[in-house]
Write a structure and sequence with these properties.
The structure is a single chain. By secondary structure, the protein is α+β, with helices and mostly antiparallel strands. The protein is built from 3 helices and 6 strands. β4 and β5 form a beta hairpin. The chain is elongated, with a radius of gyration of 22 Å.
C-alpha cells in the first residue's frame, strides 16, 4: 500500500472516531438532562430508599418542580428558609408521569417539623431543561397547614 492510501485511511479513521465520539457525547448530554423514562409497565423507583438512579442535575430539577408546585398551590415561599431533608422520585406506569415526595425543614431553631409534600406531575417533555411545561395530577402537602386560616 502506498503512502497516500495509508494517509487517507488514517484520516478517515480519525474522522470516524471523532464522529462517533461526538455522537456518543451528544447522547450522554441528552440522557444527563432528561428525566428517566422506562417502558416497564410498572412504577419504577428512581430516587430514595437506597435507590439513586438520578444524577445531580435530575435531582435539582425534580426539587425545582416540587417547589414550583408548592408555590403554586400554597405559596409562595422563600426557599432559602428551608433545608432539604429528603427526595423520593417514582416513575409512574404512564408515560411522562412522576411522583415526587419532597421533605424539608424550616431553618427556624425553635420549631423544626419535617414538612412533607407529595406531588404527581405529567411532564410534557422528558427534557428537564423544559421542566416548566408540566401538569399537576395530584398534590398533598403539609405546607397547606401553614397557609390555612383556621
Amino acid at each position: 500500500m502506498d503512502k497516500n492510501k495509508k494517509t487517507a485511511i488514517i484520516i478517515i479513521s480519525v474522522f470516524l472516531v471523532l464522529l462517533l465520539g461526538f455522537l456518543g457525547g451528544f447522547k450522554f448530554w441528552e440522557n444527563y438532562h432528561s428525566a428517566p423514562d422506562y417502558s416497564t409497565g410498572k412504577m419504577v423507583e428512581l430516587q430514595g430508599n437506597g435507590k439513586n438512579k438520578l444524577n445531580s442535575y435530575q435531582k435539582k430539577k425534580f426539587i425545582e418542580i416540587a417547589r414550583d408546585t408548592i408555590d403554586e398551590k400554597d405559596g409562595p415561599f422563600e426557599w432559602t428558609n428551608f433545608n432539604n431533608v429528603g427526595l423520593n422520585v417514582m416513575k409512574d406506569k404512564e408515560k411522562g408521569v412522576y411522583s415526587i415526595f419532597y421533605k424539608v425543614k424550616p431553618n427556624v431553631s425553635s420549631y423544626r417539623p419535617t414538612i412533607t409534600t407529595y406531588v404527581t406531575v405529567k411532564l410534557d417533555s422528558n427534557e428537564l431543561k423544559y421542566w416548566e411545561l408540566y401538569k399537576i395530577k395530584d398534590y398533598t402537602s403539609d405546607f397547606s397547614d401553614f397557609t390555612d386560616d383556621d
